[in-house]
Amino acid sequence: MARIEPGTEPEAKAEAATPRFPDAVLKILDEKRAEDVVWLDVSGVTDVADDFLIATILNARQGGAILDACEKEAKRFRIKRLGVEGGAMSSWILLDYGSLVVHLFLPEQRTYYALEHIWADAKRVR
Which residue range forms the structural domain that includes residue 33? Predict the structure, then answer.
């Protein structure tokens, strides 16, 4: 009988290959052509969330499409959105999924609020 090494069980391999929700949202941002995407691991600097995904959108329609795609993906992952600020026609859309907060900005607001600088102590994942 073949010996299975610790950590190589099929369950462990399958779990490692399963994408996490932040990875899935990152893929959406890339597919919907969001610009200047930044992923911050804020778990060491705040209790508000574990991760922030910050992206620039070029227009409200793009923001609405990303919002809709994130909502569909959250349902697929069985993650409940805790809150949303702004909407499809806003210059800043915030989606709060608990451990993940997604910020979508039009360019002017992205520059004005400069979240990457506010959270400069956070680890930059991307």
Answer: 20-124
Take residue 20 and report the two structure tokens written for it. 């996490």
- Provide the total of helices (H) and of strands (E) in the chain, helices listed first: 5, 6
Q: CATH number, domain at 57? A: 3.30.460.10
Structurally, the chain folds into a number of domains equal to 1
In-domain check, residue 11:
no
Residue 86 lies inside a defined structural domain of this protein: yes
- pLDDT tens sequence across 34-80: 999 999 999 999 999 999 999 999 999 999 999 999 999 999 999 99
Strands (E), 1-126: 35-41, 51-56, 83-85, 92-96, 100-105, 123-124
Residue 28 has pLDDT above 70, yes or no: yes
User: Do 49 and 94 contact (CB within 8 A), yes or no?
Assistant: no
Output the six-digit token pair for 126: 């991307």
> CA-CA-CA-CA torsion for 109, 111, 115, 117, nearest 10 degrees?
-160
Task: Name the β-bridge partners of 52.
Answer: 40, 101
Is 8 part of a structural domain of the chain? no
